[in-house]
What does this fold into?
Amino acid sequence: MTIQLLGTGAADGIPAIFTECRIDPRTISVGSKDCRTRAAALIDGCIKIDLGPDTMAQIQQNQLCPCDWDNIIFTHSHEDHFTVSELQYALYPFNPNEYAPFTIYSNPTVKWLIESRYPDWPFEIVQTKLFETIQIGNYQMTPVRAKHAEPEECQNLVFVKDGRTFGYMTDTGWWPDETWDYLSGVKFDSMVIECTDGLKDSGYDGHLALCELVEVLERMHKIGTIDAATPVMTTHHSHYGGSHAELIEAMRPYGCQPGYDGMTFSV
Ligand SMILES: [Zn+2]
Ligand SMILES: [Zn+2]
It folds into this structure.
């Protein structure tokens, strides 16, 4: 699998909108590792994860072909991940399509929001169930429960293809026991996980600061989900949590590294 991190910012992005950004906006240009759009990723150019408010900028910056996105998977309905209005451009009258050229996979909340917004539009939506593996083309995908956005089922995603396993765990919080139980039977070859609060723990339990991520990684090591050779990259960074350079230094002892917009790697 080839993974592209298209966006690695938290909900307010970096430079943060409408607030005094901790990282000076005058030092941030497009392409700099401190320029973070809202969280999204792409697997092998064909599985799009989340469709947030920065989708168009991500298409432009990465020379993407959205017609290649056969599948769009939504993790949850928070607006940094789910911009329902973008879906309308997949169909007539914005183009000649009678049917959207992709299948949508989502939890019940997102499915309901799409169907409420577009009651007569022929979107194909597959409702995903926690801990139930589904086949998406050549991939097996299993959603696991995050502790985030409750009572909505925020889903973190486990992908398997050709014997390789990749975890895309944005907006996790501290996982509930059922997720830990599931992960004890999984061995990741690579993982992306949120570190929203970085060096500044906000106290909010729906996201992770680095001190909490370190505990998560320790427990994952103990149960065998990752080992010292497993690449771990982070995403969903808030400006409060530190600059890319600060995060590299802070994460070095723990065997993980901050992701950045445009980061591409193979699993
Ligand atoms: Zn988010
Ligand atoms: Zn969220």
In short: Residues 6 and 41 are 5 Å apart (CA to CA).
